[in-house]
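Following up on my earlier thread - several people asked me to post the actual chain instead of describing it. Fair enough. Here it is, all 194 residues.
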Amino acid sequence: MPERNRVDPYGEIVVSPLRGRWLGNRGCIHRDHTIVRPWNGKRWIACAIAFKGWIAPKWAPGRWTALFFYDEALAFAAGHRPCALCRRADYLRYQVAAGVVGADAIDARLHAERLYGRRKRTHAFAWRELPAGAFVDIDGVPHVVLTDSVRPWSATHGYRDPISRPTIGDARVLTPPLSLRAMFGGYAPQTNVD
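Reply from S.P.:
Thanks for posting it. Predicted structure:
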């Protein structure tokens, strides 16, 4: 039975049968098997599921809380960035593409861009300029942006059928501007789009 340790594009920790390809960390945010706060610190990272045979502790008392992302584009939308340890090459590519040096600087900037108080911060951005891999909100539903379409995402089914991508006006973007900047700089986040 799925537990409440999956993350949606809004950064909320939810119950979902979708495990995905990435593991996340926001510090120790659980007690027993219950999430007791949304984060503990500014360092929100997206890690590899496996690293040199090491298995992440799950629900260990006093240890960081293992969270799971359906794909990397979703992790970015939620406000996470590649881990500097288990995903060193991706972290370095993200750092160069985003034009910000050092984990502390990246994390401080992402923290300011992902939250408005304790709620998800969104950003207006022209549809025609959005990079593939960004997430947007359309009528309360998260969608991943592709080259010529968008695909709605749900915590129960993952990506649904594509719809045409708007070409005029502004989108309500979930992905923080720093991660958009990394995408413009050449970092293409992994997606589980068929």
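The two ends are 26 Å apart (CA to CA). That should answer part of your original question.
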